[in-house]
Every structure is written in structure tokens, then in C-alpha cells.
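Our consortium's second objective concerns turning raw sequence data into structural hypotheses that experimental partners can test. To show how far this objective has progressed, the report includes one record in full. It was chosen at random from the queue rather than selected for favorable results. The single chain below, 98 residues long, was entered without modification.
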Amino acid sequence: MKWKVQATKVNVESAEWVVELKKHVNESSHRLQVHEQAIQAVVKGVHGVHMAVTEIRSALLETNDRVKRLQCQVETGEKSSKAKLDTPTSSRVASGSG
């Protein structure tokens, strides 16, 4: 006796395990979207912080340069004041200063 193979069409779409699997995939997909949005918000925030730090760094470097220039001016001014004080009174009077 020969066996006949009969193709049986099974509706896999409505199988319970397929339905559960699709449900979990949809939930996971939704969670992934939420996490991606949160990551994008963090990236945007970090970018903002980076820009602020860059601006502050530039301002600090500029302030540091100004302080150095002022220190040089003060040192130069002190040297010229000392030079005036160190010159004898007669030469200051003769030159018109003092």
C-alpha cells in the first residue's frame, strides 16, 4: 500500500504562539522607539553642554590674556615709577618733573 502525502494548509498567522510573538515584537518595537527618543534628547543635551563649555573656555582664555596684558602694564608702570623715584632730585627738577 502506498501512502499519499496530503498537503494540509495550516493557518500559522492565527496560531497562539505566533500571536504572542507578534505582541512581544510590537511591545519591544515601541520600547525601542521610546529609548531612541530618550537617547536623542540626551545627545541634544550633551551637544548643548559642549557648546556652553566651549563658549566658557573661550571667555576664560580671553580673560586670561587680558589679565596677562594688565599684569605686563602694571609691571611696566612700576618699573617706570621706580626709575623716576631713583633719579636724583636735582635731575628731576632740571628735567621739570618732581
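The partners drew two points from this record. Helices lie at 16-86, 89-95. The mean pLDDT is 84. Both points have been shared with the crystallography group to help prioritize constructs.
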